[in-house]
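Sat 14:20. Reprocessing the chain from the morning session after the first attempt stalled halfway. Input below, unchanged.
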Amino acid sequence: MKPFENLTELSSHLYEMILEEKIRTFTELIDYTGYIFTTPPRQVVLMSAFKLIRKLYWGFFKDIDYPSYPKLWHEIVIPDKRYKYAGNIKRNSTISNIYVAILDVHGYTAFCRQNSRNLSMLHLLDTCIQGDIGKITQEHNVLSRREQGDEIILVGTSAVDIMHSVLSIIDYFSKRKVISSDELTRARPGVRIILPDMFISAGVAGGKMYTPLIITEDGELSGDVINTAARLQVRANAVSPSSTRVTVTKHVVFRYRKESSQTLDFFNSGIISFKGTALAVYEVVFKNEDRYILQYQEEIQELYSALDKKLWRNQVFPALITLIIKVCRNIPDFKLKRSVEGSKNSKVRNGDIIKLAEKTLLLYSTQDNYLKAVAYLRKIVDYLGKIQNFDDLVLEYALKITELYENLAVEFKKEIEKRLDDRYESIFPPETARLYQSVKKQALIYERLKDQAMQSSVVLKKKSIWYTLMEENLDNLSFSLYSGKE
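Finished this time. C-alpha cells:
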C-alpha cells in the first residue's frame, strides 16, 4: 500500500477498496494495510473501515458489534489477535451454540390494507417492527431482523435469551398485559398504543449440536436450525391462525429448563411430521388463562404412548376417550345448540359430552359393540369441532384417529355380515331364519335384523374378529400429524 499524506486520504482509499469488493474481510484489510494503525486516530480509521465491511458483507449480522451483542459476537466472530473488537465472521462453518426464532405478525397485511391511505399509521407500525423490536431483543442479547414485511427472525446464543425475546415481543404487540413477569413485559411507548392487538405465531429451534447454523458468503443464514424454526412457525400459524402460539423443539425445552429457574411451562404436542423430517414439538404456555391445558398433559402422554406402540386393539380408543373427558372437565364451560342423544337439555354442555364419552367407552371396552362405539366417537368429534377455542391439538388427534377407526369399522361390518349370512340359522329360531332369508334383499328390515343379531350371545367371537382385523391392518393404522406442504 502506498503512503498517504493524511488520515482522510487513507480513509477514502480504504472505503473505495471495500466498495469495489477488493477488500471484503478484516483479514484482507490488515493484509493490505499491515499493522499501521498504531495511534488512536488511525484506529478510528480502521474501525470505520471495518464497520463498512460489516454493513456490506455481513448480511444478517451487519449491525452487530461487540458492545451491543457480546454473546453473539463471541459465538459468530473470529476475533483479531491485536484488535479486540474486530475480526472475521464465521462463514460456511458450523455454529452449534445458537438458537433461532421465526415470528409472523398476524393481522399485518389486513392492517396495511385497511390503512393504505393513512401513511402515518403505516409508518407507526413500521417503526414498531423495524425499531422497537430490535431494541427489545437487544436487551436479551438477541439480534432481530425483519424479513418480508411481517416476518421477524431472531438469533441468540441461549434458550433463555431467545424465549424471553419472543415473549417480550408478544407482550409488546398486545394491548393488554399477557406476560406475568415484569422482567419480560414490554408496553408500547407513547402514541404506539393506538395500534390494534396483533397476535404472533412463532417457531423456535436450536440447542442441538448436530443442527448447526451456517452463514453463507452473502451473510445469509442457512442450515437445519433455520429450516426447523420455519417449519415450527408454519405449524403454529396453521394451528392458531387468529391467536398467538409459540412452538419449540424438545431441545429448546431441555436447554431452557437447564439454563433458567423461572417457571415457564411447556405442553408436549407429540411428534409432528414435516417434509423430510419428524420433530418432537412443544407449545409454550405463558398465559394464565391457558394453563388449564396442563391438567391433561398426562392423558395426552398416554395417547402418544399408545399410538407409538401401535396399541390400537385396546389402548388407543380408551386413551382418546379418557383424554376427551379430561379436556371437557377442564376447559371453560360451553354450550352448543344441538342436544346429545339421551339429554333432556336443549343445549350441549361439558357434562353432556362427558356422559356420551363415558357411554362410548363402555360400548368399546366392555360390550364389544365396536360399530356403535365408533359411530358415537364420530358424533363426539363432530361436537368438539363446534366448540369455540377447543384445544386444536386434541381435536386434530381425535379427527385423525376417528377416521382410521371408521375405516376399520367398514371392514369389520363386512366381515360380520358375511358370518351372519353363513350362520343365521344357528342364531335365529327356524321361522325367523326363514324370514331372515326371505327379506335379506330388503335393506331396512335386513339392517334391523342384523342389529338384533349383533346383540346375540351366539356371536361370541366379535372381539377375536376385531382384534384379528386390527393386527392385519396394523400398518394402515399408523399415522403422524403433518405440517407444511405435501
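The mean pLDDT is 85.
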